[in-house]
Write the structure tokens for this entry.
Amino acid sequence: MLATKRPTESMEKVMNPAAPRKKWQIVDGVLMLDKPGGMTSNGALQAARRLHSAAKAGHTGTLDPMATGLLPVLFGEATKFSHMLLDADKTYRATLCLGINTSTADAEGEVIRERDVTCSEADIHAACARFLGAIEQVPPMYSALKHQGRALYDYARQGVEIEREARAVTIHELAIERVDLGDVPEVVIRVRCSKGTYIRTLAEDIGEVLGCGAHLTALRRLATGPLSLESAVTLEALGEMEEGARVARLLAPDSLLAHLPRLTLDGALEARFSHGNAVSCAGMAAVPRGEVRVYGTVFMGLGRVDDDGMLRAIRLVSTLHPGEAADI
């Protein structure tokens, strides 16, 4: 089992749902949060939401309680573009303990098998290379996937095994950062993978190829799509900030669409599009086809230019102003 760091006084205040708060506010933006270990993703989300008094919030891809690292939290209008990050590639640093299998494939489970570790460093490099590219994974029982309306981990805790179909995922990069074949054999890897990849399952599968088994002892998310952990803030640091400093940490909602071409409308076209009506791009220079981020005097939302040259709305942002009180 991993030791969980005792929360500091400021963290306990942040994590306390009974703590007094201001009235919920309309807050729009993206918080780059460094999730602590020992906390669920939803717990981290709710703590960040309380700190910002945000009326609406969501996150973009669950991290296990044991895992740490980047958890982008979306507030207000930014939640309309969550699919951009849910579908994005993720990058992790993972520590594998060789020679031991656990019931959950990570350090939070019970030891179910131990084997001698006789592999060499060259064997480890060869085993990891086998998982590059398109592979299939069987989702672990200890996961939030649903079966007949219940999460698989509910069945697992009752000792019930549910048959799961293998899923196609892609491992874009798998680099070995450290190998230690001493008394506690460990391998540290860096993985960039497609959505839906279970790093716990990857660790377990690498261990089986090596013939000794393995489980995950640490996992840290380094990036989600173009967003990097380097610009993230911890809940503890966020809780110690003044309100203005917390607001300054938020990225604008259109930062989630920065990879898309920009299209600017004016006059009547802006007014029509703001009401959800399709507008013609005839006469505009070099208009791209496909998804675009649309602006008028301000950011308006996500649109798509079809082959007929018409711009159609996919997601429009609200005209309510950040800081207004929300009645929820």
The two ends are 40 Å apart (CA to CA). The longest strand covers residues 167-180.
